[in-house]
Amino acid sequence: MINGADSDNIEIMKIGFIPIDNRPVCYSLPEMTAKIDSDIEFFLPERTWLGDLTKYADTEKLFDWLKNLPPLDALIVPLDTVAYGGLISSRRCPDSFDRIKKRVEDLKEILHNNGAKIYAFSSIMRISNNNINEEEKEYWSKYGKKIFDYSYQTHKLGCESCIANLIPAEILDDYMAGRKRNFEINKLYLEYQKQGLFEVLVFSKDDCAEYGFNVQEAKVLEKLGGFVKTGADEIPLTLLARAISDFQQKKLKIATIFLEPLQKDLISNYEDVSIEKSVAGQLELAGCEIAAEDAADILLYVNNFEGNQGEIVMKVATKPFDKEWQRPEKPYMIADVRYANGADNAFVQKIFEKGLDGNFYGYSAWNTSANTVGSLICAAVVKYFAQKYNDKAFKQLQTVRFLDDWAYQANVRQQLSAPDITMLAEKMKPFEKIVGAQLDMNVSVSYNFPWHRLFEVEINEFS
After folding, report:
1. What pLDDT score does 379 carry?
2. pLDDT tens across 449-459, in order?
């Protein structure tokens, strides 16, 4: 254990974990994180059973897997995966309310029989402000922006917006029926929580705006006693951290240090709360205690933005980090959120100039600010409480984070016009040498585009 636990009192923790879908950040990242502690027994379903961009998860196989698990200490369950076949599928699934209700009632019985503490989350159906149907129903390519505007204005005005007249009735009816079904299922989960099924139940808001049906639903759920959190893909990882903290019966004390302290009230892209509140929310959900710098176990440095959050892929500029970076003398981790969907090159260069030492607890710049912070905290919690610390596993995880978040997302991705493994591997080689030198690792990896798009890359096959 990092903190010097009594080796005679080590108790292996058994954790079951259902990923949201088969993306590497949902499937491989939790597994890599858990391996930092060799005394965590981590149970994952087969990856082929999970959904992807177009395929639904095989819920029957997932249910069979759940039934055959040994007694566990904790079970992390994204409810969208078992109810609808995945987070994306929750927006596309044609099943009726009654059919979904029967499925979640069966799930309730299975979870109760295992006896584990259940850490669950369900999404509040998002409303994308665009005409991209890659993760939505087919009609989103023509009417997505109008549906968003209809939702926004109806909530803001307090009465139905005339924008409804610009959307075919059958499409609007289908969309609203899907929303109502998912909302009613979320209320059913709240009833289960009141019955004591869940140790923690989170309702997630993804891609938020100031107004909208999703915002209205969130407020209703909160009034009914539900806990609502901005974020999505990182929440299973945050819940994993919470389960470990609960098992250890100790809260990790973390002090947050914003590199732009006067800008911490700004709101990140794709979120509806300030970066300060976003970070505090992740810490709270992970079971951590927010502490003063001198009393903290770990320092959380946040490379936040000035004015606006940049986004390299979308060609949204922002001021890069231009100050001095002083490597701290106590344990620290780094959330790089100056840009969404990738690292701040200037900041990474400063970090590497100083080097990474034994106090380093992790780096992340994955996608949204919530994604970055939640996944980062999880790895730090696992490392800090590790009964049998696996340094190689920690370095492998950090290798992936730097190669994905910095090398690929902030640099190489901009040089590709389409998924091309050969070109990708060639362009990543210089970055592999830099990361390997920083982490004292022999970096030998392969690459894959699991969803056949540039948005995510998979990095695996370590030597």
Report:
1. 98
2. 999 999 999 99
**Positive/negative CA dihedral, 444, 23, 341, 330:** negative
392, amino acid identity: K
Closest CA to 458 of 403, 412, 415: 403
pLDDT of residue 39: 96
- 388 near 349, Cβ under 8 Å? no
Q: Are 23 and 384 in contact (CB under 8 A)?
A: no
Tokens at 364, concatenated:
């992340």
Tens of pLDDT, residue by residue over 291-335, are: 999 999 999 999 999 999 999 999 999 999 999 999 999 999 999
DSSP annotation string for 148-175:
HHHHHHHHHHTS--GGGGGS-HHHHHHH
On the question of pLDDT at 4 being above 70, the answer is: no
Is the model's pLDDT at 5 over the cut of 50?
no
Q: Where are the alpha helices (DSSP H) in 49-168?
A: 59-67, 79-84, 89-92, 97-114, 140-157
Q: How high is the mean pLDDT of the chain?
A: 95
Helix runs in 122-234, H state only: 140-157, 169-194, 213-223
Parallel/antiparallel/unpaired status of strands 289-290 and 13-17: unpaired
Model confidence at 2, pLDDT cuts 50, 70, 90, reads low
CA distance 186 to 221: 8
Computed on alpha carbons and rounded to an integer, the radius of gyration of the chain in Å comes to 22
Instruction: Quote the pLDDT of residue 9.
Output: 62
Contacts of 81 (CB under 8 A, 6+ apart): 18, 19, 20, 21, 50, 51, 57, 62, 87
Nearest to 78 by CA among 45, 53, 102, 54: 45
Q: What is the dihedral of CA 147, 153, 156, 161, to 10 degrees?
A: -110
Q: How far apart are CA 426 and CA 422, in angstroms?
A: 6
d(CA 31, CA 207): 26
Average of per-residue pLDDT across 214-241: 95
Closest CA to 450 of 4, 27, 2: 27
- From CA 325, how far away is CA 329, in angstroms rounded? 13
Res. 207: pLDDT tops 70: no
Q: How far is CA 2 from CA 5, 83, 357, 380, in A?
A: 8, 38, 15, 11
- Kindly report the length of the chain: 463
Say which amino acid occupies 395: K
Domains of the chain, with CATH numbers? Answer: 11-238 (no CATH), 251-417 (3.40.50)
pTM, two decimals, is 0.95
